[in-house]
Amino acid sequence: MPSQETPVDLSSGALRAVSPVHRQYMRNMGIASSLSVAIHSSTGLWGLLSSHKQNADVLTQSGRDSVVTLVRVATQRLFLLKAEAAGRYREQIHQQRTVLAREVQERGPEQILAEHAAEWLQLFRARGVALVYRDQTSRHGCTPMDSQLLDLSTWLAEQWRELNPWATACLAQTGYPKSGDISCGCCGLLAMPLVIDVTTRGWLLFFRREQVEIIDWAGQPRKIPERVGDQLRLTPRQSFAVWREELRGQSLAWQPAELAAARDLGDDLAVLASAHEVTRLNERLESEGEALARANDHLHELAITDSLTGIMNRYRIEHLVQVALANAERYGQAFSLVLFDIDHFKQVNDSYGHDEGDRILKTLVNSLVPCLREGDQLGRWGGEEFMVLIPGTHLGGATEFAERLRARVVATDYGLRDPVTVSLGVTEWFPGDSLKDLLVRADSAMYRAKKAGRNQVFTDNSKEHD
Ligand SMILES: Nc1nc2c(ncn2[C@@H]2O[C@H](COP(=O)(O)OP(=O)(O)OP(=O)(O)O)[C@@H](O)[C@H]2O)c(=O)[nH]1
């Protein structure tokens, strides 16, 4: 045979020399003939059927072929059973995914896990399942504690950047530094990374407890090398006496089908989690938007309202007069203004106090509001001075209205010894008027009413005579 670097694969060779180690083994075991048939699965050597005989015996070709055929038939049956079991498992996982697909976005991943935990524990032959994301944990069954789960997921995120599941039957052998702190007895971990959004990662974690495995070998299976001269030689097993091996610190191994199932369920859970996040975010934005709109309305209301009397403030009534002016210029819509001021209000304050003065202001406003027609606008011009904008009304009608206001003020009971009266100035819009023109005329009319003895209505129609 030509010398070469790599050993020659003789697995399918029918006739080949028996290795010296095997001959030694046969001598050790006191056997003179042996027959071994390899069992291959799609992924490689799966097992070996081995039989021995004490006396030397030559198996005929047909005898050998029969044994090989029998092994093949049995192997096929075995793999068929395994494939059926895998099919049933896939079907169960498929059912779980169908259920998840029907989940509504109102339910968070924690709730979904809580509902399915029992089934998933059974499907994954696990003792505990946990979900870790956004520094929150939710767990079911036998799992490490919350702080340990957070620590474990941080470590996993550093170690495992892939989007496939990561699994071990023995956490202590993975290099996880805090595996000794985990006291729940779980040593097997299947961890599926969840991609919730660009920045948020989570973990779906399944835990298995230690499973002490006792294996009875036909003889010590490990071949121990022995030094012969300056060479190392393998010493094959010495007898068929049962050699018992006890495997500790390991969980059941995670099967490829279980890893695939964890990936499918994890992906579904991640999709549900991100859909849930989007729904929550929208709800929050909506309610924040509504709160903001309410706050804006409130601010606007505050900005245009007189805090003492609750009617419009000067800013607002002045704005409305400007709007009326623009409409009057464009469409010729008439309007009038009444400006009035409480007479000797300083005396009211001086005699009864400022609080009492405030009360008079409020009482006066309340008594006047019922006199207003729809469209009339009453505002506080400042201090004890008020303005009424009367749309669609000429000077005559506005003067009658002002007179009614005056009479109403006098007729109102303020609970004071002295009567409360107002002096009123009335003016009407004329084409070409500016806001200032209107205000000057209304003010001068009111001033003349004061001058004439107060508690009177005066008009300023000076423009009419211009
Ligand atoms: N209580 C109270 N008083 C106010 C308020 N705003 C203005 N005043 C008072 O109203 C009074 C107005 O006094 P003056 O401008 O001298 O006028 P008057 O006493 O009403 O006299 P005439 O206008 O000439 O009839 C002052 O004493 C102000 O302090 C207010 O919101 N509350």
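qc> The domain at 103-212+248-280 is CATH 3.30.450.270 (Beta-Lactamase).
qc> done
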